[in-house]
Design brief:
The protein has about 350 residues and is an alpha/beta fold. The chain has 2 domains: about 210 residues, 3-Layer(aba) Sandwich (Rossmann fold); about 90 residues, rRNA adenine dimethylase, C-terminal domain (Helicase, Ruva Protein, domain 3, Orthogonal Bundle). The chain is built from 12 helices and 9 strands. Helix 8 crosses helix 11. The chain is elongated. The protein starts with 17 loop residues before the first helix and ends in a 9-residue tail after the last helix. It comes from Stegastes partitus (bicolor damselfish). Keywords: DNA-binding, Methyltransferase, Mitochondrion, RNA-binding, rRNA processing, S-adenosyl-L-methionine, Transcription, Transcription regulation, Transferase, Transit peptide. It holds the Pfam family RrnaAD.
Length: about 350
């Protein structure tokens, strides 16, 4: 591991360029894996700078691919970098990089969606949740189809202080499709305000750092890319279980353009919908004619608290799912219909 504090000592020795490595190992980008590489080290350096000071840091990089971002992380002085890559074709090139940075780069051939990151690092890097974040960062330029489910999983981990957040308030610097980056950071009443804005912002400080034009990637994706930085909050803005908050937010945003009480109604069984919606809105003191994007996090907090209160009083409510009621009704209708009618087709 790097011991010196001098930045110069962290710099990698001369290596083939990332482009040369791609040619050497014939690393054609796989469309199915949505592989788009960043070969411009000025851009990968810029992403890494947004993560904060990496001097002596522990870093988990997700989806290193040919290793451009990995080089920038190592050059920024990270002492211990663990990369998780799903595609085995990249492993030899990463091993070359590992030899150039002795003892500083560990390679895991695996899937970040199932990888147990809490086992990849020693417990002594942890910092108590209430203190400053640990010197441990997650950085990645992932395919869009992975980064969105992954951030939802990590937000739940943040709420429960599990996975990478068993080490404390681990910071994340990740790329997303530009539109998703905008949703993650959207403020109240903005066009992009969505479920994702609430779920991310009630748990983290979220910054949309900068946009990378699609043309900077090889091959060029259809869309531009946003780099987003997350720091978990010491105190989440909503003090209810993640699953409960997620359910309230999902229902509220079900009808984006309608008054918010329309979505809230679907939290309750049809027979008691009007009565319980009214009670919840009154308890929360939220104007039922606000539209979902107009709701602030304190509004959502009040709604989640009111819903939790009703669920304690009537425990069956928490497991009620509107779609399930619809499905059962549909099945019941189907079983009653005589065979040969249109509903059997
Ligand atoms: N970080 C590299 C760069 O910036 O040039 C590669 C970026 S490319 C958009 C995404 C990388 O993530 C690919 O190397 C791909 O194989 C890898 N990947 C995709 N799904 C993954 C998963 N579930 N777990 C780990 N790596 C994954």
């Amino acid at each position: 591991m790097a011991a010196s504090g001098k930045l110069a000592s962290f710099r990698l020795p001369p290596l083939p360029t990332v482009g040369e490595l791609i040619k050497l190992y014939k690393l054609r980008a796989e469309k199915q894996l949505s592989q788009n590489f960043l070969l411009d080290l000025r851009l990968t350096d810029k992403i890494v700078r947004k993560a904060g000071c990496l001097n002596g840091a522990h870093v988990c990089e997700v989806g290193p691919g040919p290793g451009g971002l990995t080089r920038s992380i190592l050059n920024a002085g990270a002492a211990d970098v663990l990369v998780v890559e799903k595609d085995s074709r990249f492993i030899p090139g990463l091993q070359l990089l590992s030899e150039a940075a002795p003892g500083r780069l560990r390679i895991v051939h695996g899937d970040i969606l199932t990888y147990r990151m809490d086992r990849g690092f020693q417990a002594n890097i942890s910092k108590p949740w209430e203190e400053d974040p640990p010197n441990f960062h997650i950085i990645g330029n992932l395919p869009f189809n992975v980064s969105t489910p992954l951030i939802i999983k990590w937000l739940e981990n943040i709420a429960n202080r599990t996975g990478p957040f068993a080490f404390g308030r681990t910071r994340l610097t990740l790329t997303f499709q530009k539109e998703v980056a905008e949703r993650l950071t959207a403020s109240t009443s903005s066009k992009q305000r969505s479920r994702l804005s609430i779920m991310a912002q009630y748990l983290c400080t979220v910054h949309n750092c900068f946009t990378i034009p699609g043309r900077a990637f090889v091959p060029k994706p259809e869309v531009d890319v946003g780099v987003v930085h997350f720091t978990p909050l010491v105190q989440p803005q909503i003090q209810q279980p993640f699953q409960l908050v997620e359910k309230v937010v999902r229902n509220v945003f079900q009808f984006r353009r309608k008054h918010c009480h329309k979505g809230i109604e679907n939290l309750f069984p049809e027979a008691r919908r009007v009565e319980l919606t009214q009670e919840m809105m009154q308890k929360a003191d939220v104007d039922p004619v606000l539209r979902p994007p107009e709701l602030t996090i304190p509004h959502i907090r009040a709604l989640a608290d009111a819903y939790a209160h009703l669920c304690i009083r009537e425990p069956g409510l928490l497991s009620y799912e509107f779609r399930e009621e619809l499905r059962l009704k549909h099945l019941a209708r189907k079983s009653k219909a005589p065979t040969g009618t249109v509903t059997d087709m």
